[in-house]
């Protein structure tokens, strides 16, 4: 009987479990997996090939590969052998011209295109057009540069054939570095901690989350308590006005703030009329840029907090407020000893939720300051977004962006645990000592 009850309960919970796994746990798991790869636009998300490029050879010199070997890999030669002759035949080279080449130069190698073409010009059946002669000569070109190899073995064999005297360990180093696909790695986290900009972004994020969270909680609490003591009709109208930032579409909300703070906007015009400094307050200075960023997100969060706190205030037993008034308690005493203790749970929820929301939010900053002026308002979530999905260089670094997102997940979970202990979560779940 008990087993049947468990099965029925699990059946009722299964849709919620599917949603939880599909939309919450799966993205986190995939983020953690991608964080330990070097996936990017250049590597792709599937397997890659082995390609030796000029940039790779420059990098290999910095990594200790002898310059003589790197320079030799970049050179091009021309060889007349059965393989290149077959390649020229398949390309449609004139058979008589090809027979002359085989007869005159079979087994010979030329160091550059000019010397090989000079020899070809002496043949009787050569093409008369210079362009056709160069195309024919190109079929005999031997170069490892920019050639694609499907496997490491093919790349290793090509290097051994091209430069047979290169040590095996150097060949392995070149082959490993030439792989264009993604690899498992922990280098993303090392890169984050080694980058000097990282710590500046961390400080920006701490400042942004701390100040905006304080604004959200305290202003939302102040608005909820204020409207609680106002007449119902006035409180309703006042609450509706404060809900506008939450209800307004984010793009329209950002455009309104731009109109409000940019050159020629309301603040600019008012400041100019009053003889105060008039400039673009959204991007013109660091203090004003931070003020705008905090207010934009703070008003949205304050509207959300006010809704929750107002609902919690209406759940307070009215008998306690009546009793306090009979005892001569002032409004401040009611707030301190009755209202705030009853709001511990809503305050915990708002603080935790808003912290996680602010840590992962970047839309408002992206649409307004975009991290400027310079990178002074750049926060962690916006940097992760730019790294993984909006990189101006064109090489989107999925692995590095996922590593940054994983750091946010870890920080968010840690802060949630701290909040649960700080607000004494176990006491909030205990049975009430007084029932009404």
TrEMBL record:
SUPFAM superfamilies from the UniProt entry: MalF N-terminal region-like (SSF160964), MetI-like (SSF161098)
Keyword list, A-Z: Cell membrane, Membrane, Transmembrane, Transmembrane helix, Transport
Membrane topology: Multi-pass membrane protein
Gene3D superfamilies with a match to the protein in the record: MetI-like (1.10.3720.10)
TM spans (from-to): 206-230, 242-260, 289-316, 398-423
Pfam families: BPD_transp_1
Source organism superkingdom: Bacteria
Iron in keyword set: no
ABC transmembrane type-1 domain mapped to chain residues: 202-419
Subcellular location per the Swiss-Prot or TrEMBL entry: Cell membrane
Broad class of where this protein is predominantly found: membrane
InterPro entries: ABC_transporter_permease, MetI-like, MetI-like_sf
Family: Belongs to the binding-protein-dependent transport system permease family.
UniProt name for this protein: Inositol-phosphate transport system permease protein
